[in-house]
Design goal:
Elements: H1 9-31, E1 42-44, E2 51-53, H2 61-82, H3 95-103, H4 110-113
Antiparallel strand pairs: 1-2
């Protein structure tokens, strides 16, 4: 189905902010040590693959607060987007398609950005 949806501006803005918050959270988690609490290094080769981790100094109180702030905002935005009044206007059989189109609405439309060849 190639339907287009007239998403409300607040829903589009909420989805865009959700993308931004998730990207920021992912980048932060990649920078932080692997363990929230300080832990010694370990190596385990008894499983199906060897697992090794360096010693972790843990996260500072500020780092923990920043992660919690981003996770809280992510939850708020996820609820806002998924419970928006717009979804009551979409036919049940079109909901998945509409949701996927909303998730990618921030991306450039390939048809409008390509030049005729």
């Amino acid at each position: 189905m190639a339907a287009s949806y007239d998403f409300p501006s607040d829903l589009l803005a909420g989805q865009e902010e959700l993308h931004q918050v998730r990207a920021e959270l992912l980048a932060l988690l990649k920078r932080l040590p692997w363990s929230v609490e300080p832990l010694d290094a370990f190596s385990d080769d008894n499983g199906w693959r060897k697992v090794e981790r360096p010693a972790s100094p843990g996260w500072t109180a500020d780092e923990q607060a920043e992660v919690e702030k981003l996770r809280q905002r992510e939850r708020e935005l996820a609820v806002f987007v998924s419970c928006h009044r717009f979804w009551s206007e979409v036919a049940a059989e079109n909901t998945v398609d509409a949701r996927m189109r909303l998730k990618h609405a921030h991306e450039a439309d390939p048809d409008s950005s390509s030049e005729p060849g």
